[in-house]
């Protein structure tokens, strides 16, 4: 499938950049886990090639297989037991600190094993805006972060949570945290000397500003990216714009030399704190899209990546493959006799790039601009990929060979394709990664859904992502998943449902359940809104001064905590009540009065007001505490409007704009 230009690139790369090409030929610097028998302390550069390329390896004695999606994986089930016990004390501490009036939370959690809730957090897409706003929420929920357990804080919610899902820009946040040893947002935000991690003031098109721990030679940034991608191509794998995009992203997200080309997503499973159940279970989401088709929430197969498995619960593909082995030659779910196994395809940046592949277009439209440092031959190599794939496919990530080849032939739209094409998890408009969290088998009780989608004229969310998931729950593809009812966009705006946190699906009596079916999780919707900073920055701004990054993270914190309780002193109590709502029903416990009050103020009660609101332009809910100078790059918000050079210059369709 590859034409001559990539080989030309290889040649040029070798000529211009001999050292790193030679380096690729050297043995892996990091021995693999099973060789030493030691568990690595963090997500690890465990790709057997030692570089970005996947490699063929002997299969383990029990060959990996695809399994039907009729349950959780044995690995997840075993992990959940550990996590369940590891979350009891953090949950008790959290509830104790928040102290729901007239309610003994310690006694409640201790008395009945089924009282303990399963808590999940979902971080939407929306580029850096979503990363930063989502980071504010996670910082506020993380007991390790300064002041998170002070009055009004939500610290400990993260430690009490079981799942943490991210999609597109939200996937950068989740991926970055896990690739960096479950570092806190505070640690990543503050950085460290020589590291380019979270240095968003460096445009991704120009790369790190100084060499150091993260980058040996900044002048070689794009040459290295191209070289890494050619390692993969050279090993016989198809590459697409997603590979370049994922590589470039990694310099900002993975705190390792050259963006950690050998780091795999599945290595999270080896991370000591993850393996012992001390961190939540990370999940990234992408959509399947067969060549030449368009997708909507009603028919796209939603795939998830977790540390153990990649696949889909949807009745189309309905299968999971071990993440570590995704590019092995599966056929009908097995590796044929004599077939080899492949490892290293699940490269961490590639997985994050897959979930955010709509940004491929962002890359394409900027690499040749005047202020980009991308060398011409790298630009040519990237645009050549397009000629091979066709412009309409510039957003795909190629998973070749398709792990689900010959699997569920009757229902799987990709069963006969040698290649599985995955795209940005928000392309079906389900821009919050709720899909993995509403699977009944996971038994999630509450989802804290942080929405940084740019739905309205000025890039605020209006509930579009929730409606896409709600509508999907009526389609055959829902396969038994349920979703709380949510109203139209004008109602979101008119009732302020997108201006402050709101709860959906509070009343389980409102769900029609079949025998054995349980109500879906309570949804705590945390929309991006201006508390102390205008956090509605354009999705297409490629860099943010550190002060602005910090302002937006703090705004996300103020959104999570309602300004540390200044907007509503009861808010932390309401968060605790939301966490326990399904638990109260399950154990037949009377809802404490304080919780009933919370539910009457935060639950959407079915009221609809669909009158046209006109342009939605919210003002500061607390006060302008911005410290950043507005930048000329279009990062400023209200008033700036969607003039962003982005949309027009990029010629994006109305659809893609809405997604973010
Ligand atoms: C923590 O809270 C104290 C008291 O409100 C405040 O003075 C301090 O600046 C806060 N620290 C951070 C890092 O926000
Ligand atoms: C990872 O984090 C844990 C917990 O904070 C710490 O004990 C360990 O030293 C860290 N490992 C690395 C490699 O940074
Ligand atoms: C980045 O990694 C280096 C080397 O492991 C470590 O010293 C530093 O603390 C890390 N920085 C961040 C922000 O995690
Ligand atoms: C999904 O639905 C859209 C809109 O109805 C349609 O155009 C598209 O072909 C469908 N795609 C698949 C894969 O069925
Ligand atoms: C997978 O199958 C293809 C096509 O038959 C073959 O070229 C390739 O070597 C195989 N890879 C492995 C790892 O078995
Ligand atoms: C809501 O968002 C969608 C895009 O997600 C947009 O098309 C629609 O116009 C918005 N409606 C309102 C009332 O804001
Ligand atoms: C809430 O507390 C955080 C952490 O101390 C601080 O950064 C933020 O400014 C506070 N918010 C308000 C509105 O005071
Ligand atoms: C414990 O929870 C179960 C539901 O799982 C419920 O039937 C039972 O009544 C509860 N027991 C107590 C003491 O609350
Ligand atoms: C439902 O909520 C609306 C505002 O969102 C409120 O005006 C109305 O009184 C509520 N209805 C009931 C029955 O609580
Ligand atoms: C209850 O369910 C009906 C039917 O799905 C829906 O129209 C209504 O809005 C729901 N009410 C609430 C409060 O969720
Ligand atoms: C908020 O304050 C900053 C700093 O004073 C200023 O640059 C910015 O324009 C203000 N934003 C708004 C929307 O008023
Ligand atoms: C609950 C439910 O409807 N599950 C179905 C999901 O899809 C698979 C594959 O088609 C069926 O076997 C399940 O019964």
UniProtKB/TrEMBL annotation:
This protein's record includes keyword Lipid metabolism: yes
Q: Name one GO molecular function term.
A: phospholipase A2 activity
Q: Which SUPFAM superfamilies does the record associate with it? A: FabD/lysophospholipase-like
Signal peptide bounds? 1-24
List UniProt keywords, sorted A-Z.
Answer: Glycoprotein, Hydrolase, Lipid degradation, Lipid metabolism, Signal
Catalytic activity entry: a 1-acyl-sn-glycero-3-phosphocholine + H2O = sn-glycerol 3-phosphocholine + a fatty acid + H(+)
Family annotation (SMART domains)? PLAc
* DNA-binding as UniProt keyword: no
EC assignment: the record states 3.1.1.5
Please name the InterPro entries in this protein's record.
Answer: Acyl_Trfase/lysoPLipase, LysoPLipase_cat_dom
**Coiled coil residues, start to end:** none
Q: Which GO terms describe its cellular component?
A: cytosol; endoplasmic reticulum
Q: Where is the composition biased (Polar residues)?
A: 46-64
Instruction: Give the main EC class.
Output: hydrolase
- Name-wise, this protein is Lysophospholipase
UniProt GO BP: glycerophospholipid catabolic process
Lineage, broadest ranks? Eukaryota, Fungi, Dikarya, Ascomycota, Pezizomycotina
Q: Family assignment?
A: Belongs to the lysophospholipase family.
Q: PROSITE patterns in the record, alphabetically?
A: PLA2C
Which residue stretches belong to region Disordered? 23-72
Q: Which Gene3D superfamilies match?
A: Cytosolic phospholipase A2 catalytic domain (3.40.1090.10)
């Amino acid at each position: 499938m590859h034409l001559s230009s990539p080989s030309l690139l290889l040649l040029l790369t070798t000529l211009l950049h001999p050292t790193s090409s030679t380096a690729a030929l050297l043995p892996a610097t990091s021995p693999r886990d099973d060789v030493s028998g030691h568990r690595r302390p963090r997500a690890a550069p465990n790709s057997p090639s030692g570089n970005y390329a996947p490699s063929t390896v002997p299969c383990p004695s029990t060959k990996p297989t695809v399994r039907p999606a009729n349950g959780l994986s044995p690995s997840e089930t075993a992990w959940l037991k550990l996590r369940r016990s590891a979350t009891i004390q953090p949950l008790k501490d959290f509830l104790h600190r928040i102290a729901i009036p007239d309610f003994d939370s310690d006694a409640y959690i201790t008395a009945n094993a089924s009282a303990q809730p399963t808590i999940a957090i979902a971080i939407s897409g929306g580029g850096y805006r979503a990363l930063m706003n989502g980071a504010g929420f996670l910082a506020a929920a993380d007991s390790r972060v300064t002041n998170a357990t002070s009055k009004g804080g939500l610290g400990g919610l993260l430690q009490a949570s079981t799942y943490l899902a991210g999609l597109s820009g939200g996937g950068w946040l989740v991926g970055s945290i896990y690739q960096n040893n479950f570092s806190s947002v505070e640690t990543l935000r503050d950085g460290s000397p020589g590291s380019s991690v979270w240095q968003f003031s460096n445009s991704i098109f120009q790369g790190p500003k100084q060499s150091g721990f993260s980058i040996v030679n900044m002048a070689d940034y794009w040459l290295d990216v191209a070289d890494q991608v050619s390692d993969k191509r050279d090993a016989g794998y198809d590459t697409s714009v997603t590979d370049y995009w994922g590589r470039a992203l990694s310099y900002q997200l993975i705190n390792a030399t050259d963006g950690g080309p050998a780091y795999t997503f599945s290595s999270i499973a080896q991370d000591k704190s993850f393996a012992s159940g001390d961190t939540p279970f990370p999940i990234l989401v992408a959509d399947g899209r067969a060549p030449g088709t368009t997708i909507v929430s009603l028919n796209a197969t939603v795939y998830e990546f977790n540390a153990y498995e990649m696949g889909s619960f949807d009745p189309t593909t309905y299968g999971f493959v071990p993440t570590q082995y995704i590019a092995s030659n599966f056929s009908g779910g097995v590796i044929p006799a004599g077939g080899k196994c492949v490892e290293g395809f699940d490269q961490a940046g590639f997985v994050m790039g897959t979930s955010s592949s709509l940004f491929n277009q962002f890359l394409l439209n900027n690499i040749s601009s005047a202020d980009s440092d991308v060398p011409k031959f790298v630009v040519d190599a990237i645009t050549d990929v397009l000629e091979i794939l066709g412009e309409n496919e510039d957003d795909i990530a190629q998973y070749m060979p398709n792990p689900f080849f010959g699997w569920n032939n009757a229902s799987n739209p990709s069963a006969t394709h040698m290649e599985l094409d995955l795209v940005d998890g928000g392309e079906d408009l389900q821009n919050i990664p709720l899909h993995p969290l509403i699977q009944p088998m996971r038994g999630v009780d509450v989802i804290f859904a942080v929405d940084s989608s740019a739905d309205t004229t000025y890039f605020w969310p209006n509930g579009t992502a929730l409606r896409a998931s709600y509508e999907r729950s009526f389609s055959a593809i829902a396969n038994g998943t349920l979703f709380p009812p949510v109203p139209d966009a004008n109602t979101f705006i008119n009732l302020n449902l997108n201006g402050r946190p709101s709860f959906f699906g509070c009343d389980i009596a409102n769900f029609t359940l079949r025998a054995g079916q349980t109500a879906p999780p309570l949804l705590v919707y945390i929309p991006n809104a201006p508390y102390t900073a205008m956090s509605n920055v354009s999705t297409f701004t490629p860099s943010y001064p550190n002060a602005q990054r910090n302002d937006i993270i703090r705004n996300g914190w103020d959104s999570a905590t309602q300004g540390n309780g200044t907007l509503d002193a009861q808010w932390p109590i309401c968060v605790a009540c939301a966490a326990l709502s399904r638990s109260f029903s399950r154990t037949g416990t009377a809802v404490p009065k304080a919780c009933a009050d919370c539910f009457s103020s935060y639950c959407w009660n079915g009221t609809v007001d669909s009158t046209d609101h006109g342009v939605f332009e919210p003002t500061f809910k607390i006060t302008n505490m911005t410290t950043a100078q507005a930048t000329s790059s279009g990062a400023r918000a209200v008033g700036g409007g969607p003039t962003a050079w982005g949309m027009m210059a990029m010629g994006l369709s109305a659809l893609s704009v809405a997604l973010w």
